[in-house]
Amino acid sequence: MSLREKKIRFPLVMKNGAEVRNLKELQDNFDLDTVLDYYRNGRLMEWLKLWRLFDEAELLSKLDRKDVDLKHKICDIFGMEYREIPKIVDPKETAWRAGRLNLLKKFTEDPKYLEKVDNVAFNVDDVYDLLDDGVNDIYLCGKLFAFPAEIFRGGNQSYHGIGKVMVKIESTQVIEFEELNITFEDVEFDEEYLRILFRAACRKFKEIHSERQSMRQPKQK
Fold first, then answer.
1. Where are the beta strands (DSSP E) in the chain?
2. CA 73, CA 56: separation in Å to the nearest integer?
3. Domain, as residue range, for 122
4. I need a surface site. Which of 48, 53, 66, 188 has the fewest CB within 10 A?
5. Taking the C-alpha atoms of 59, 64, 68 and 70 in order, what is their torsion angle to the nearest 10 degrees?
């Protein structure tokens, strides 16, 4: 008899505290969120192989983590019915959103903006909050937004003005918005930043003109 390394057959611990060691126990204590966590960290596949659930392991290996139907397919593998967990509505959040919607309606009744209320900024603090939440397509609603240069560091931002919106860029030099993949729509820049843009354009023109002049001069023999 040969000596073999003994495999440690660990259980999956479900949300209710149950330790499952076979398919029946998994089905009796099934919790999709927990199973998904085990799937993502690789423990689910390891568990299936240790407990010789090879058919389920093969089906699991064919899944794509980016598949929009991933939750449904995992439930199907284990013979479970997929049920969408209803979102719990927070009364405070509902009231907060209703207040923002009422504020937005003072500026516009256009449905295309009203449906974007969650992406609307009424001041620069709102812009920071939206960026922190990963929102990069932002609607500006207000007369003036003073943007410090640092706010653009992350890049990949789109700003859309609602009504007449003035954007003040607090910078002493041109910000290369195109390189940062930052766009502005239906907004105006403040006069000081426009002067900075104008001076930069003049310098660029002079540089190009000087370079062309030097190229036209005949070479001395």
1. 12-13, 19-20, 120-121, 137-141, 144-148, 157-162, 166-170, 182-185, 188-189
2. 11
3. 110-213
4. 66
5. 30
Please list, in sequence order, all residues whose beta carbon lies within 8 angstroms of the beta carbon of residue 99, skipping any fewer than 6 positions away. none
Do 161 and 209 have their domain in common?
Answer: yes
Q: Identify the domain boundary among 77, 96, 124.
A: 77
* Residue 220 in domain: no
The sign of the CA dihedral 77, 78, 83, 88 is negative
- Encoding tokens for residue 208? 């190009």
User: Does 84 map to a domain?
Assistant: no
Other beta carbons less than 10 A from residue 74's beta carbon: 21
- The C-alpha atoms of residue 36 and residue 71 are separated, in whole angstroms, by 8
Whether the CB-CB separation of 131 and 157 falls below 8 Å is answered with yes
8 Å CB contact between 152 and 124: no
Does 145 fall in a domain? Answer: yes
- Order the strands of the 188-189 sheet from edge to edge: 144-148, 166-170, 188-189
DSSP 40-90: HTTHHHHHHHHTT-HHHHHHHHT--TT-TTHHHHHHHHTT----PPPPPPP
How far apart CA 54 and CA 61 sit, in angstroms, is 10
User: Does 5 fall in a domain?
Assistant: no
pLDDT tens across 1-44, in order? 345 566 778 999 999 999 999 999 999 999 999 999 999 999 99
C-alpha radius of gyration, the chain, whole number: 29
pLDDT at 220: 57
